[in-house]
């Protein structure tokens, strides 16, 4: 595929510039709005609408809409918050974990949706903000519970011979306080960027093969179309999976911060 | 795949996807805050209330069922007790009736016996009285006849009652003595 990327002018490969579209409103101000920001607003509007309708008149015996919304909320509550943190702490951090899960999910899912075609999380802002939120949340949880305990567990893990702390403590510091937010950000961001680039690549190649390439090469177009279709479905899965992973890791970090000992 | 990304990145503008733009952070934070408050203050409390309501409804139904069962058991116990009471009472009544029957029969028997005795004794007394009356009348008639006859025979009027009765008495005594002798 790569050779074709630099082939004749008919093929337009994906570029990183797609994640920085032209400003539409307020260009140059801190409130600049471009296409991706509009997609985010749309995703958030849909999210608010779905949950508002789903929870507007909640009844003990649910309607279909309510069942679906309940199922989603139960997934975040039972399978993430309560599973990792237990009932009590799960309830405490439930708003945060639910928010992270559904925000990431709704912003991710715009990637495979036709006409939107780019994830709201494929620009670093959202992953970074959420990673910082998760970072603040677990430090807050640990410090609030017991500052001494939290930093001792994080930096001086018990059961290690004292002289090894020379090595272990810097490693623990870097992994806990530096790597965690970075990996949270990059995992989500890169998944979304690469997913988008892949889909663009497959579909622009299909376009190229069908309408520009000659003779037998047109057949390649079938292959790239099939791959494009398969990866679109795969992106839906990735959207859900990344939302789950982000929320799950946030819960896990909070749990580690709350744990008495590792 | 990765090469494609690199190629794409190389081809693209100088923009680095790892460097956040200010507007990006602004809008991302705003979105986060909106969604957080939406879930925190609106959706999750409603969800919690629903879960509580549902738990309450289930518990309520269980309690109701328990209550119903307890009532049914109490009613059954009561009926059983009543049935036992009724049986005991029936037995008692039967015993009473039997005893009463015996008593009535015995009373009647006694009454009948007393009546019979009374009838017998009154009959005896009457018989005795009649016999006495018969003896007395017979005695006077026999005396009169005998005297009439004797006076006819001896031509002597035995008008003197004292004398006559003395004679009759002697005569009868003699008659009885002769009867005894004959026996």
TrEMBL record, chain A:
Q: Which InterPro entries match?
A: ATP_synth_F0_asu (IPR000568), ATP_synth_F0_asu_bact/mt (IPR045083), F0_ATP_A_sf (IPR035908)
Task: Write out the transmembrane intervals.
Answer: 36-55, 93-116, 122-143, 163-182, 188-210
Keywords on record: ATP synthesis, Cell membrane, CF(0), Hydrogen ion transport, Ion transport, Membrane, Transmembrane, Transmembrane helix, Transport
SUPFAM superfamilies (alphabetical)? F1F0 ATP synthase subunit A
Query: Chief localization class?
Result: membrane
Kinase as UniProt keyword: no
Bilayer topology reads:
Multi-pass membrane protein
Function, as annotated: Key component of the proton channel; it plays a direct role in the translocation of protons across the membrane.
Protein's UniProt name: ATP synthase subunit a
In its UniProt entry, the species of origin is given as Cryobacterium breve
Provide the taxonomic classification.
Bacteria, Bacillati, Actinomycetota, Actinomycetes, Micrococcales
Q: What gene does the UniProt entry assign to this protein?
A: atpB
From TrEMBL, chain B:
InterPro entries attached to this UniProt entry: ATP_synth_B-like_membr_sf (IPR028987), ATP_synth_b/b'su_bac/chlpt (IPR002146), ATP_synth_F0_bsu_bac (IPR005864), ATP_synthase_B_chain (IPR050059)
Its main subcellular localisation, reduced to a broad class, is membrane
**Ranges in coiled-coil conformation:** 62-96
Where in the cell does this protein reside? Cell membrane
Q: Which UniProt keywords apply?
A: ATP synthesis, Cell membrane, CF(0), Coiled coil, Hydrogen ion transport, Ion transport, Membrane, Transmembrane, Transmembrane helix, Transport
Transmembrane segment boundaries? 25-44
Identify the domain of life: Bacteria
- What's its membrane topology? Single-pass membrane protein
Pfam families noted in UniProt: ATP-synt_B
The UniProt entry, under HAMAP family, shows: ATP_synth_b_bprime
Q: Matching PANTHER family, A to Z?
A: ATP SYNTHASE SUBUNIT B, ATP SYNTHASE SUBUNIT B', CHLOROPLASTIC
NCBIfam families, sorted: ATP_synt_b (TIGR01144), PRK05759.1-3 (NF004412)
- Per the similarity annotation, which family is this? Belongs to the ATPase B chain family.
Subunit structure, briefly? F-type ATPases have 2 components, F(1) - the catalytic core - and F(0) - the membrane proton channel. F(1) has five subunits: alpha(3), beta(3), gamma(1), delta(1), epsilon(1). F(0) has three main subunits: a(1), b(2) and c(10-14). The alpha and beta chains form an alternating ring which encloses part of the gamma chain. F(1) is attached to F(0) by a central stalk formed by the gamma and epsilon chains, while a peripheral stalk is formed by the delta and b chains.
**Function statement:** F(1)F(0) ATP synthase produces ATP from ADP in the presence of a proton or sodium gradient. F-type ATPases consist of two structural domains, F(1) containing the extramembraneous catalytic core and F(0) containing the membrane proton channel, linked together by a central stalk and a peripheral stalk. During catalysis, ATP synthesis in the catalytic domain of F(1) is coupled via a rotary mechanism of the central stalk subunits to proton translocation.
Record-given protein name = ATP synthase subunit b
Q: Which organism is it from?
A: Cryobacterium breve
């Amino acid at each position: 595929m790569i050779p074709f990327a630099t082939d004749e002018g008919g093929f337009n490969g994906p570029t990183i510039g797609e994640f920085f579209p032209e400003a539409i409103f307020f260009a140059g101000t801190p409130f600049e709005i471009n296409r991706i920001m509009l997609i985010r607003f749309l995703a958030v509007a849909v999210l608010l609408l779905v949950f508002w309708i789903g929870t507007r008149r909640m009844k003990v015996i649910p309607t279909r809409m309510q069942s679906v919304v309940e199922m989603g909320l139960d997934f975040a509550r039972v399978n993430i918050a309560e599973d990792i943190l237990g009932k009590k702490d799960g309830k405490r951090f439930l708003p945060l974990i639910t928010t992270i899960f559904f925000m990431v999910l709704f912003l991710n899912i715009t990637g495979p949706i036709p006409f939107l075609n780019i994830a709201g999380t494929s620009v670093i802002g959202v992953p970074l903000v959420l990673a910082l939120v998760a970072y603040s949340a677990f430090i807050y949880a640990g410090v609030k519970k017991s500052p001494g305990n939290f930093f001792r567990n994080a930096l001086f893990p018990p059961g290690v011979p004292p002289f090894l702390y020379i090595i272990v403590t810097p490693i623990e510091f870097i992994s806990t306080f530096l790597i965690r937010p970075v990996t949270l950000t990059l995992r989500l961001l890169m998944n979304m960027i690469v997913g988008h680039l892949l889909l663009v690549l497959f579909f622009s190649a299909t376009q190229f093969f069908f309408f520009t390439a000659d003779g037998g090469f047109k057949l390649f177009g079938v292959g790239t179309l099939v791959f494009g279709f398969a990866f679109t479905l795969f992106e839906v899965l990735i959207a859900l999976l990344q939302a789950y992973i982000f929320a799950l890791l946030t819960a896990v970090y909070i749990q580690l911060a709350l744990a008495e000992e590792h | 795949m990765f090469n494609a990304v690199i190629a794409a990145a190389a081809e693209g503008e100088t923009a680095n996807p790892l460097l956040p733009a200010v507007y990006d952070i602004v809008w991302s934070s705003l979105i986060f805050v909106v969604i957080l408050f939406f879930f925190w203050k609106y959706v999750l409390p409603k969800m919690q209330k629903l879960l509580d309501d549902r738990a309450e409804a289930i518990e309520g139904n269980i309690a109701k069922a328990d209550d119903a069962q307890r009532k049914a058991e109490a009613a059954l116990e009561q009926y059983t007790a009543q049935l036992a009471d009724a049986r005991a009472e029936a037995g008692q009544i039967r015993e009473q009736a039997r005893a009463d029957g015996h008593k009535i029969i015995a009373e009647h028997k006694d009454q009948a016996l007393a009546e019979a005795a009374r009838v017998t004794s009154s009959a005896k007394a009457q018989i005795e009285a009649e016999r006495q009356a018969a003896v007395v009348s017979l005695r006077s008639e026999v005396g009169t006849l005998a005297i009439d006859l004797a006076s006819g025979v001896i031509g002597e009027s035995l008008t003197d009652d004292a004398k006559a009765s003395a004679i009759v008495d002697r005569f009868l005594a003699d008659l009885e003595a002769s009867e005894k002798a004959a026996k």
